[in-house]
Design a protein that fits this description.
This protein is an alpha+beta fold and 344 residues long. Helices cover 40% and strands 19% of the residues. The chain has eleven helices and nine strands. It has a seven-stranded mixed β-sheet with strand order 1-4-5-9-8-7-6, with helices on both faces. It has a two-stranded antiparallel ribbon with strand order 2-3. α2 runs antiparallel to α4. The longest helix has 38 residues. The protein is elongated. The termini are far apart.
């Protein structure tokens, strides 16, 4: 039995040494050390041995089992290390090769225009105010001198959630909310950027969702000339020092008097062309002196405080400044369009 155990040991060590992968090594383990392995088969004959021989054979069997197990673990470690080295060699990366260029994105053109307008007005002492896009009828209309059933509401047909909740049609509600927070004490000097919504048919110049920036300045001794000077600075900053402006009478329920502002056409220098429809001027925004009713509803004494307000669409500003012919380009996320303005 001793001789058979030593033969098993020599045979096992030889097969372990010649194993070329872990599967072969596992087969060797099962063949020699498994429940039906060679050592177990030998030990089945222990019952035929004398009482004195059994401990000797048992000790020898355990010793041989340990030697085979140790040889198996050593070989397994070597095979794993060899496999790792082969994998590293096959997957080697030349770190001296140049890297693949990564395309860098950039801010959306509308975001750039909005930021440029914000930077201009904050440099003039304005602060940026924001408010909810889901607005109440009171703040969106009534607090702006647009009572229920007022005909001017037709121009701002929007998406109603309930009779009193709607998607705001302008950022003017932010002005009304800010005025109320000041509790009748000026000055109030803010710009209000954000998304607005109207039930409009989408085409080259209209969208059911667009952005707007409105401005408000309320204080003592504010005059129409202050409004004109502010808008003149804005026009020259955004479109160039050679741009002229003109104010035309208009109507907005929340301002009185109200005006539309035009800038001189850049293409024809005011001579008249197809872009400005032969007039030499391009409409750009609406403005006016804050209506006394709006001030009074917000708690301001309209005899003491005056103010002006203006509103513009960044899409229109961007279209005029960068020659974009269709407002829908801003919302279709076409990389070919957006990439044109990464450097502006």
């Amino acid at each position: 039995m001793k001789e058979r155990l030593n033969e098993i040991k020599e045979e096992a060590l030889e097969q372990i040494q010649s194993a070329v992968d872990e599967k072969t090594l596992q087969d060797v383990r099962v063949y020699f050390l498994g429940k039906k392995g060679q050592i177990t088969e030998v030990l089945k004959g222990m019952g035929k041995l004398s009482k004195e021989e059994r401990p000797v054979i048992g000790q020898l069997a355990n010793q041989i089992r340990d030697e085979i197990s140790e040889a198996l673990e050593t070989k397994k470690t070597k095979l794993e290390q060899a496999a790792l080295e082969q994998q590293l060699e096959e997957e080697a990366v030349d770190v001296t090769l140049p890297g693949r260029p990564v395309q860098a994105g950039g801010p959306h053109l509308l975001r750039k225009v909005i930021r440029e307008i914000e930077d201009l007005f904050t440099s003039m002492g304005y602060s940026v105010a924001e408010g909810p896009e889901v607005e109440t009828d009171f703040y969106n209309f009534e607090s702006l001198n647009l009572p229920k059933n007022h005909p001017a509401r037709d121009m701002q047909d929007t998406f109603f959630i309930t009779k009193e909740l709607l998607m705001r049609t302008q950022t003017s509600p932010v002005q009304a909310r800010t005025l109320r927070k000041h509790e009748g004490q000026g000055p109030v000097k803010i710009i209000c950027p954000g998304k607005v919504y109207r039930r409009d048919t989408d085409d080259a110049t209209h969208s059911h969702q667009f952005t707007q920036i409105e401005g408000l300045y309320v204080d003592e001794n504010i005059r129409m000339s202050d409004l004109k000077g502010t808008l003149n600075v804005f026009a020259k900053h955004m479109f160039g020092e050679d741009r002229a402006i003109r104010l035309r009478p208009s109507f907005f329920p929340f301002t009185e008097p109200s005006v539309e502002m035009d800038i001189s056409c850049k293409i024809c220098q005011g001579e008249g062309c197809s872009v400005c429809k032969g007039s030499g001027w391009i409409e750009i925004l609406g403005a006016g002196m804050v209506h006394p009713n709006v001030l009074e509803m917000a708690g301001f004494d309209s005899n003491q405080y005056k103010g002006f307000a203006f509103g513009m669409g960044p899409e229109r500003i961007a279209m005029l400044k960068y020659g974009v012919e269709d407002i829908r380009h801003f919302y279709t996320n076409d990389i070919r369009f957006l990439k044109q303005f990464h450097g502006v």
